Amino acid sequence: MLRLGQRSLQTRNRFSIGLLFTLPSIVFVLLMIVYPIFYTFTLSFHEWSGSARRDPEYVGTSNYDTLLNNDPRFEDAVMRTFEFTFKAVAIELILGLAIALLINGEFLGRGLVRVLILLPMVATPVAISMAWLLMFEPTVGLFNEVLTSIGFAPRLWLGSQDEALGSLILVDIWQWTPMMVLLLLTGLTTLPEEPFEAARVDGANAGQRFFYLTLPLLFPTMVTAVLLRTIDALKTFDTIYTMTRGGPGYATETINIYGYVQSFEYFSLGKASSLLVIFFAIVLGISLVFTQIRKQWGIPYND
Amino acid sequence: MKRTWLVLLIVALMGSLIGLVSVQAQEENPLAVGVSDEYAGTELRLIFANHPWNNSIQRLLPQFEAVSGITLRVESYFEDQLSQRLQVGLTSGNTQADAFMFRPLQEGRLFADNGWLGDITSFATGDLEWNWADFQAAAANTVTFDEAVFGVPVVTEREMLYYRKDIFEENGLQPPATLEELQAIAAQLTNTSEEFYGVVIRGRRSPAVTQFSSFLYSFGGTWQNEDGTSALDSPEALAAYQYYGDLLRNYGPPGITNMSWPEALAVFQQGKAAMWLDADVFYANVIDPNQSVVADNVGFAPFPAGPAGANQYNVTSWALGMNAESENQEAAWEFIKWATSPAVVLELQKRGTPGARISVWELPEGLSGFPEDYAAVVQLQSQRGVGFDRPRVIRVGEARDIVGTPIVTSIEGGDVAAALAEAHEQFNTFLGSDGG
């Protein structure tokens, strides 16, 4: 009896010590992640301008109602965000795959090339934006100099409603293709050798090996890479804000920019919160879809 | 014993010497007259905008610190970031700033409503020597909400025409007196193949609104009717929007819909435009040879007259306010009082920032800091014009976006009438929900 009691005491002790050690991280998660999300969620049912005098006023689902049914600007922003994300990630995937295949083999200066290719990713977004802003400048910018010198008409780039979003996609591709390369390269190096050897023995050509082996084997990695990039691209803020602030007109106003405008320029904290909740739901939904895709069609080699 | 006396004597001597020096310093420095050292040891946190006023006063701050014994810690931001920085600090309710610059026409009403701006009525009206009555009535009005004073005006501005004297001379031109002439001259001087443009003005959706306002008023339009509904459906408003867009599309630099004042200013500074219309406070940036390649060739002219006359805006663009939650309100007032005292306002005005004190404007010295032709224009325009350069509402940011959208449509050559009709409808809905 005594021994049993001792043991249970020990277990309890061990349990409480364990709790003690994990407590900081639990508190951290509660305070820094759960609380803000909960607060945003609560605030999304209120109207508040940050007043110290008046408490947030409960307005039910009217913020959601306005956004979803009566706010063309929000609707446009959603479509724009999808367009930006889809185009950017699709091009990044193709480019990334090509570059990854290219630098996967053994060649002289491989290490150097791999480091260089990562540079855009590690540079500060705001600094990048400033540099691109100068290059896009319609009168003295590099791009127009180049275009006119080879006989093309100069473009307005960020200065026109029609070209601004495309210009921003270009920046995103430049900045984030390296991330795609990095992820796909990791995937490529972990691919097993045997199927390729077998294919070669059976006389498969390079194209066949790529389409019937590399692609399917790499598929799970590609899904993960696209998922990560998609979430990131959906949330792009820094480059857009520094370069266009959502303009000209509203031509580059994405959900994130619109949320910023609602909270920091219009002081409509309630509406901004409901916007963020919707955005959160969208991102969550997309993640779930991707996870499903991976589960369904991802073919880990050993299965 | 003797030694103790000696030590005491030396200490006393030194003490009086220091006292003497500081008294002398105070006497020698007219900029610090009347500053009390009652709050010595206090640290004040100030948040300023990146603005010529800030650049000028930064150089005077050490003199205030020396006499008052108050330590000043200044943070500076571009105007939008400033607004955001204040909002975050003030919403969270921690006293991060004791005093700050704010835009009475942009955030004043909201900040006061939200209880962020301290009511300084008793400070302002209680100090007869400092003299609240010396501030221009229009300026005082823009910081007074429901009879309570929430700030002290520090910068007043009016829209002005900056032009290239050398180019006008070469072409035998006089600065335009009417908007019609402005357009004709812009057309004449634009040379796209050499990347030289007749005129540059802000074209970005929201920042353009303030500079467009003078055009709107001069065409006979305005933002809101007396009854608080949108006035954007008037033919005058349509004409103004059409004119502004046509002018900038045909004779302005490419990419103008992305330009706020720093970008437009840069175009003019680099000698790529013949005319620039913007607030008169920026003249120092234009005639500074370190920033501007056209420094020696800039002329100044009043805003040209439209069909309804020359009605440029004439506003208090910046004021100093106090954080309602500050624990150092007395010390903060000591600073605000100093920064807006006749001596300091005069000094700032000499350095090129037009203030709001009547007495300073009346002094010949008050204009001595300005080039002669500039002073003449500012004086002329400070007597006239409209006291607001954007819709007068609580949520100004949203209103600016609504009324600014047709400006972009117009610059891009779109259907202005349709865009304006849509803005008119949106603006009415907005005004109905704005509650002020």
Describe this protein with a few key phrases.
heterodimer; A: 303 residues; MetI-like fold; two-stranded antiparallel sheet; B: 436 residues; D-Maltodextrin-Binding Protein, domain 2; 2 domains; eight-stranded mixed β-sheet; 19 helices; 10 strands; 14% strand; globular
Question: Would you spell out the secondary-structure blueprint of this structure?
Answer:
The complex is a heterodimer of chains A (303) and B (436).
Chain A: H1 2-43, E1 46-47, E2 57-58, H2 62-69, H3 72-102, H4 110-122, H5 125-136, H6 142-149, H7 164-189, H8 194-201, H9 206-234, H10 238-243, H11 255-265, H12 269-297
Antiparallel strand pairs in A: 1-2
Chain B: H1 2-28, E1 43-49, H2 52-58, H3 61-68, E2 71-77, H4 79-91, E3 99-102, H5 104-113, H6 121-126, H7 137-142, E4 144-145, E5 148-149, E6 152-164, H8 165-170, H9 179-189, E7 197-200, H10 208-218, H11 235-251, H12 261-269, E8 273-279, H13 283-286, E9 298-302, E10 314-322, H14 329-339, H15 342-350, H16 358-362, H17 372-382, H18 396-411, H19 416-434
Parallel strand pairs in B: 1-2, 1-3, 7-8
Antiparallel strand pairs in B: 3-10, 4-5, 6-8, 6-9, 6-10
Helix pairs in contact in B: 10-11, 11-18, 18-19
What features would you describe in this structure?
The complex is a heterodimer of chains A (about 300) and B (about 425). In chain A, helix 1 (about 1-45) crosses helix 12, helix 4 packs across helix 7 (about 165-190) and helix 9 runs antiparallel to helix 12 (about 270-295). Chain A folds into two domains: about 1-30; about 75-295, MetI-like fold (Orthogonal Bundle), CATH 1.10.3720.10. Chain A is mostly helical and about 300 residues long. Chain A has twelve helices and two strands, in the order H-E-E-H-H-H-H-H-H-H-H-H-H-H. Chain A has a two-stranded antiparallel sheet with strand order 1-2. With about 425 residues, chain B is an alpha/beta fold. Chain B has two domains: about 35-150 and about 315-380, Periplasmic binding protein-like II (D-Maltodextrin-Binding Protein, domain 2); about 160-315 and about 390-435, Periplasmic binding protein-like II (D-Maltodextrin-Binding Protein, domain 2). Helix content of chain B is about 45%, strand content about 15%. In chain B, the strands form two sheets. In chain B, strands 1, 2, 3, 6, 7, 8, 9 and 10 form an eight-stranded mixed sheet that branches. A two-stranded antiparallel sheet of chain B has the order 4-5. The model of chain B has no long low-confidence stretch (mean pLDDT about 90). Classes of the chains: A mainly alpha (about 300), B alpha/beta (about 425).
